[in-house]
Amino acid sequence: MKKLIKWFNYTASLRTKILISISIMQGLVLTFFACYVYSVQTLIIGKMSDNEAERIEYMKIFLPARVSCIVVALVMILLSVVISDFLISVVIKRLKKLEHQADGVASGDMEAIPKTDAVDEIGAVTNSISVMADNLKEKAAQAKAADSTKTDFLARMSHDIRTPMNAIHGMVEIIKKNPEDKRRVRDCIRKIDISTSHLLVLIDEILDMSKLDNGDMEITTESFDIGEVLQQSLEFAMGQAEERDINVYMDSSDLTVTKVLGCELYTRRIFTNLLSNAIKFNKDNGSVTIEVSENIPDRKRVVYTFSIEDSGIGMSRDFINTAFEPFSQENTGARSNFTGTGLGLAIVKKLVESMGGRIDLKSEIGEGTKFTFSLPFAIDRKVSDSEDQRAERMNSGIKGSHMLLVEDNALNLEIAKFMLEDKGVIVDTATNGKEAVKLFEKSIPFTYDLILMDIMMPEMDGLQATGVIRNMMRADAKIVPIVALSANTYAEDIKVSREAGMDDHLSKPIDVDRLYEVITRLKGAYDSKRIERPYSQLFTGDSLK
Predict the structure, then answer these.
(1) Which of 469, 474, 502, 532 has the fewest CB atoms within 10 Å, measured from its CB?
(2) Which stretch of DSSP H or E encloses residue 121?
(3) Does the global pTM surpass 0.85?
């Protein structure tokens, strides 16, 4: 019985299933009808006579009628089966056609299923599959375009990375052969610095785009002067402009509020990126005009509107529609003149929008481009230190500090050690987590003001070493600042380092200003905690209770 049910469910054709179902139903109806007729006739005969012989005679009389009813029922069943088979054939034919069309879609022919005017269930399924095929066709076209764009992007990146790398390699060779020519050596060092900065921009743009797509970019809030950011960004770009005799004009005379609360890093990034593009894609002896205005809706908020207009090569109307998309670059036929990842504008748009602003552009081929963007900020009513005062406080807080630097790469270790010693820091070094743990364990409590810890190291990594140090029974183990040094800067990596017991996370290559700022902040907090500890706790674990 189980095999019969399995055959009916999974093997028998749809036509067979329907015919068997109809036949069973008709058989049940016929049986019921025959029983009903027999019962009625028997009841009538019983009423007509009490004599057995007479009842038998009556039964013979009614027998042809019974047979006729059964024959008519059988004929009706046969006729219904024929009609049902015809109707089922029509349905099966449409289903077979739909199956054939679906196979065409499966093999890649997205035009195999046209829409139909039929309004029944099969028509609805056909139209649904047709819509699905259209969507798949559209997605396939988008995927193909994205794949083509990424292929072009990788080809550009290969070119753009090799160009500064070749310059660095060439400058090093020149220095090796001309060590006594100080003027030439200085010029080579300057060009190496420019090339490394270009490499960092390329890498940062790729990482930033990935972070923005994953929602990992953190929008911080700090006090800063928007006027200083504009001026410093302008000074940074002037070197590029002067090389090509491009005149840069900025009008920010309407600004009455410059002290704001917001993300200084991303504000600087947006402005610098757009200004650099205005110069890079400009004509020699061209011009860049910057205008800044403000709108103060109330005492707490200010909205700045920036416009950056150049007299450069401009953009085609088709490219304007995709200018803010990742990896997007217009084919100008002069690829070697305009290098980059094609991510700059995409990053700018995402940063502007994440800060609550908006950005638009207008451009004409050969006429130039104008970017207009607005950014809202909270007004900072507090008076803060000047740049010189902050630098002086930072230097005084770092000088004389004793730090443990843990780094397995010899070159990175040398660079970080130089940065610290240049500020008057006493530096002990370790090349892996196990060495760092031993040095900390042997030191007198509170010897180290801060530990800079690489993450990926042999024998014992930075996360494990941090865990061991934090669990030591000594007064400074829980509170000594430990800062991660890592090339991994995603939110998940920072979260892991925090969970391991680290106080902050610095990305490689190390940003000098960021390094000094973190050290000053953490060391100041550490000094406050250390003052609160009585001398009797220095060599005990009492402070851990």
Answers:
(1) 532
(2) helix 121-177
(3) no
